[in-house]
Amino acid sequence: MSADTTPAPWSDAARARLEEFLRDAPAQAGLTGEAAAELSADLDQHIHEEMKRENVPVISVATLEPLLARLASTPAPAAETPAPARKPVPPTPLETIQRSKPWHRWLFLLVGVIIPAATILFELFTGACGADFFRPFATPAHALFAAVVPLANYLAWRFLRNGQSRHLPRLAALLGFALVPATWYALLLAPMTPFAFVFVFIGVALQPSLPFLAIMTLAPLMSLVARKVALGRLNRTSGLESDSTRSTVRLWRKRGVLAGLAVLLLAEGPGLATRVGLSFFRSDDEVWQQRGLTLMRTLGTERALLQACYDNTSRNAAPSTDTAGWIYNWTRGLSSFAGMDGNLTTGFTTPPEAARTAWFRVTGTAYNSVPPPRRGLSFLPETRGQAVREADDWAFDPDVGSDAVAMRIRGLDLAESRLDGHLEPDAGLGYQEWTLVFTNATALPREARCQIQLPPGGVVSKVNLWIGGEPREAAYAATAEVKAAYQKVAVAQRRDPVLVTACGPDRVMVQCFPIPPGGGKMQIRLGMTAPLDHGRLWLPQIVERNFGSARSLEHSLWMQGPAPFTCAANGAASSLQKGLQALSATLKPADFTSPRAFISCDAPPAITVWTEDPFEPAERKILIGHRDPATQPAAPLICVLDSSAALRPHYDALKAAFHATQGTWILADDDEVSTIASDFPPASTFRRGAENGPALQRALDEATRHTGSVIVWLNGPQPVPLRSSAALTQRLEKNRAPAPIIDVPLSAGSNRLVEALFKLGVIQTGPRFADPLKELPPWLASLTTERHDPAWRWETKPAGTPVDGGVKVSDQLSRYRAFLASPHQPAAEDARHQLVTAKSGAVVLETREQFTASGLTPVDPALTSSVPALPEPATATLAATAVLLFTRRRKRPLVSCQPK
Amino acid sequence: MDDFFDNWTVQVRKGVLELCILSALRDQERYGYELVKTLVSVPGLQVAEGSMYPLLSRLKEQGFVETRLEESPEGPARKYYKLTEKGRTQVAAMLVYFQALAGAVEHLGGPTGQK
Which residues in chain A touch residue B33, judged by CB atoms under 8 angstroms apart? Predict the structure, then answer.
């Protein structure tokens, strides 16, 4: 091709130019690494070959450049096919857009990304908006929904700096989606927006942090503007790219908007449906009420319904609610302003009582059986210090001193719990002392209120309040008297009292006030005397409360008795300690809110027992109780079955009981009453809260047709006063001898209907079942046949009179006898025996002057109930020896009072 | 010529460039500079000299050509290219296809298409 000639020397400049060319060429070809090195070598060799053919003395830059240009350039057009002149290559559309001014980009980042993201984080960690206005992030999904806005803006910001066109559709979709949350939250904050604009500039004069809060209020609006700017630039970009790109971007943006709307509907739809359902439920028209319930049950959410239970209460120092409630409040305000009225607008003013009733009808539980809605942090875990926010601190409790347990108070907790008990199998009795310590972390004095379910057939026989570290005894008097004293001291004077009154069969209402603010504590103690139920001593349980449980709460249990026993709550068995069987255990809080915790003792009761009655004079000092055999006749059975969700766990037991008994079964199903003929209703029937009043009325009607009928009411909680209560009580007041109604609560919880019937004295205590499937059917069946249950027969003798064949027991016997006689004796007798019954109550006041001013006298501590202390070993030995000698002298074996 | 023709020739040139390289090496090995000059001189191919070397590298990576270096006293070592067996088979197949295609295009008009 060419003859080799001696190559001409290279000038330094030419060599430098060659090196530069060889360095740049691989990069321009898009090569790196080994391929780049190979190309450089190939071009170097090519250039040297070419330069050898140049007939020049020195290879200069001028000689080199034409070759370099040829190597680097595109091919020249052929002479015969001249290509048209190329148009100058314009910058890409993206490059055009990306050449915006730097300060524009940083302003966009601040307004569209940093402020919205900071606002979301601020709300999550402080709950500022949630505490004072509405909770924007009720669930994690809500927070993620809002977080799409700064995320989309951030990605748009990055794209507009150095993005690639192929990402345009995805970004358009994200920006389309972001339109929905940004608009949604901007609209929610619209009522505050005008003020925020003002406070941005002058708020600092009122409070230094106000401008920052105002900026955060405007964050959704700002992010909306930023998003609009980003979308505009994207549209310009896509338009410059091509028509198809523009169409694609528009399509994906629309898809994003639709996706955002779908998510919004999923997130907020149930809350709005709940509010609309509530407005229907408030109607006087039963058809609309049922529609409201159906709407709430099918599309609503318990979260929004629970919030409505706490809305519009004076507890809410600020009108804090959820987003749905916020919309309703403002819609209500606007409609009132516009003079509108109608079904919906009247529904906007849903009072909390209606919401609480709706809660029960929808869920079958009490609204205060679950923690109240959180007002501060939306979903992040609460820490101890964060649990109580300022708004809760200063929230007023309107129910102080009232008969209602009412709303849960955040920051008021049960901090310590201790239960000491003593079993007396001979007497068939058990005595328990429950010590409760409440703590108040809020800034106001608080009243702790709760309903306690006593062991079946039990009675409160001791009440203490710790004042200055010492337990003070209560005064017992007629219920009206002790309530008046409590109102006077607690509500008017704000001093330390505790009040215990009966609110149902085996149920007492406990109120204590004031629990000091700022972490203050208050300690009370209840003593309970109760019969053993087939050898079982049931533990008391809290069925309704206005306080929570401290995180560290444990229930310390100490039980003692002369015979071995077991604890069903944790399976522990007693062991011999210092001459007595004793058990020490730590129970979980759930054991005191569940109806399944009991102590079981197999030792049979003695036929005859006696005690020295501390409340009687010498001539009646010895109280003797005989368990005589008695026969109960067979009775036609009428069962009223509550179809509330609380009974769903016992479906199998109820079904078995239905098939095992002869009688009439009446089902309280939602608003309707039906008689169960042959087919037991399916389990799905037990899924909500049902009114039981109409079913009980039907049962009373049925009972008039069958003389001697007994009505057994198998029920769950009825935590709200329902419409039917008044009609039922009116009916019972007119009926002089209604059939007895036996209350069988199968699930723990408050029961307003039971409370109403208790005041009329027409309801009796039914048994409790450890295993309803095994125990309920035979018990119901036993009611329809003649049965033999022992009945107490009492006699009294002067002090010092020997009792032949009787076992001496503690003076709990005298209290229990007085409790059994309570329906037939005046309140003063109940009070004299230190009992809390339907007619008498107990109150502890702080000072003797307060007792005197109230006309009350606290009882003598020497005469009160107590759990006997364990004897010292030496004492135990002496006691055992004495008992042994005594029994030998009598030559009669004791039935079961010996320690084993 | 219009834009359409210009674009079409670009596509055709792109399509036949590899065939041209492999064909140029069918009968003898050539060193890079010589090969490039040969191809540049093909009428209508209009190939840029600098763009040939990356293409040769790719063909080498694909196993159609192989190289050897020969030291040169007057400059950088010369790189010689020759077909591998794989490249030889490939170029034979490509030529058959190309000739068949060109013939078919030639005769597409047929008796009625001929003027």
Answer: 45-46, 49-50
Return the number of other C-beta atoms located less than 10 Å from residue B80's C-beta.
18
The answer to whether A7 faces chain B, any CB pair under 8 Å, is yes
Q: Which positions 124-153 of A are in contact with B (Cβ < 8 Å)?
A: none
Which residues 66-95 of chain B have a CB within 8 Å of chain A?
A: 74-79
Percentage of chain A beyond pLDDT 90 is 26
Q: How far apart are CA A336 and CA A865, in angstroms?
A: 61
* Pairwise CB contact (< 8 Å): A48 & B57: no
Contact A471, A381 (CB under 8 A): no
Q: What residue in B sits closest to A6 (Cα-Cα)?
A: B74
Nearest CA to CA, how far is A248 from chain B (Å)? 28
Q: ∠ at Cα A269 (A290, A337), nearest 5°?
A: 80
DSSP letter for each residue of A550-606 = -TT--EEEEEEESS-EEETTT--B-EEETTEEEEEEEE-GGGGTSTT-EEEE-PPPP
Residues A327-341, mean pLDDT to the nearest whole number: 64
Residue with tokens 């059986």: A369
Give residue-wise pLDDT tens across range A195-213.
888 887 776 667 777 788 8
Answer yes or no: do A52 and B75 touch at CB < 8 A: yes
Burial environment of residue A341 by CB neighbours within 10 A (0 to 12, 13 to 18, 19 or more):
exposed
- Interchain pair B47, A75: CB under 8 A: yes
A8 touches chain B (CB under 8 A): no
Q: Could you give the CA distance from residue A150 to residue A153 in angstroms, rounded to a whole number?
A: 5
Residue bearing the bigger pLDDT, A85 or A552:
A552
Contact partners, residue A560, CB within 8 Å, separation at least 6: A421, A422, A423, A574, A577, A580, A581, A582, A583, A867, A868, A870
Do you know the residue count of chain B? 115
| Distance between B15 CA and the closest CA of chain A, angstroms | 16
Q: Which of B3, B57, B75 sits opposite A7 (nearest CB)?
A: B75
The two most distant CA atoms of chain A are separated, in Å, by 151
**Residues of chain A found within 8 Å of residue B2, distances taken between Cβ atoms:** 84
Which of A378-392, A537-551, A661-675 is the least confident region? A378-392
CB distance B6–A81 less than 8 Å?
yes
CA A86 distance to own-chain centroid: 74
pLDDT of residue A247: 76
Tally of helices (H runs) and strands (E runs) in chain B: 5, 3
pLDDT at A317: 41
- Contacts with B54 from chain A: Cβ below 8 Å: 29, 31, 35, 39
As a whole number of angstroms, the distance between CA A882 and CA A897 comes to: 13
pLDDT tens-digit profile of A400-449?
Answer: 767 788 778 878 899 999 999 999 999 999 999 999 999 998 888 888 99
pLDDT tops 50 at residue A895: no
Q: Environment class of residue A356 by beta-carbon count within 10 Å: exposed (0-12), middle (13-18) or buried (19+)? A: buried
B32 in reach of chain A (CB within 8 A): yes
Q: How far is B39 from chain A (nearest CA, A)?
A: 12
* Mean pLDDT (chain A, rounded): 81
CA distances from A145 to A117, A137, A138, A154 (A): 12, 9, 11, 15
Which residues is B80 bridged to in the sheet? B31, B68
Q: Say whether A81 and B1 touch across the interface (CB within 8 A).
A: yes
Residues A522 and A857: beta-carbon distance below 8 Å? no
Contact B79 A35 (CB under 8 A): no
What dihedral do alpha carbons A811, A813, A817, A819 form, nearest 10°? 80
DSSP state of A110: I
Do A294 and A211 contact (CB within 8 A), yes or no? no
* Residue A14: band (very low, low, confident or very high) from pLDDT cuts 50, 70, 90: confident
